[in-house]
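Quick review question:
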């Protein structure tokens, strides 16, 4: 595992669980608004945290932490993700996976092996605007759509989430997204904030009033929509 970050305590990343968050390096997307750009565009292998060190930390926190969130980057790029999560589960932890949904076969493998307790999948934008939103011209969304369909089949508890950026998300996009993921799933609209180390500069978020308007649009098809970060 190429681990390059460890948040030792979080009460926000895993619903109703005391957790830590592990950040893996590397991503197949190039979202201009990515707030973890160092894990995407300029990975420094000298910053790796040894897997053994991470597991030793988790062993010491047994009985204190309930769960482990695995984020990135895109964790499904890690070739030994399955083995690592098995080690985490053997320590008694629940596991949440953050993913962009572009590796449906890995998502299915982990879920069907009983290795995931919760999944948070990014919905970057409406299908028609995916390529520009993820920074990859001509991107075929079929694999992302496959992951959406798989999660919506009810195989594991999950949430969808969209980071809302003024330059990429407009009224019609929220209408299209709501039709795409129509149902009773939990869906978060997250307000974009400039972390200071983005892939592209000059991007902006919306104010609370506009975010609420976006939520109202989505709510017509996805009743369980909530705002985050506003």
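Suggested answer, residue by residue:
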């Amino acid at each position: 595992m190429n681990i390059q970050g460890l948040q030792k305590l979080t009460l926000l990343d895993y619903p109703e669980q005391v957790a830590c968050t592990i950040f893996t390096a590397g991503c197949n997307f190039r979202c201009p608004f990515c707030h973890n750009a160092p894990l995407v565009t300029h990975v420094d292998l000298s910053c790796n945290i040894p897997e053994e060190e991470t597991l030793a930390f988790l062993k010491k926190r047994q009985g204190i932490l309930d769960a482990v969130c695995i984020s990135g980057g895109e964790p499904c790029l890690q070739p030994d993700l399955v083995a690592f999560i098995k080690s985490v589960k053997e320590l008694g932890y629940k596991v949440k996976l953050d993913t962009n949904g572009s590796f449906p076969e890995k998502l299915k493998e982990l879920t069907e092996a009983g290795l995931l307790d919760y999944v948070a999948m990014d919905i970057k934008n409406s299908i028609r605007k995916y390529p520009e939103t993820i920074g990859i011209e001509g991107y075929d969304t079929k694999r992302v759509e496959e992951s959406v369909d798989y999660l919506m089949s009810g195989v594991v508890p999950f949430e969808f989430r969209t980071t809302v950026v003024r330059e990429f998300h407009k009224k019609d996009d929220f209408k299209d997204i709501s039709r795409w993921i129509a149902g009773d799933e939990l869906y978060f609209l997250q307000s974009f904030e400039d972390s200071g180390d983005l892939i592209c500069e000059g991007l902006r978020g919306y104010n609370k009033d506009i975010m609420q308007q976006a939520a109202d649009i989505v709510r017509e098809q996805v009743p369980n929509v909530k705002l985050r970060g506003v």
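Why it works: The mean pLDDT is 94. The two ends are 34 Å apart (CA to CA).
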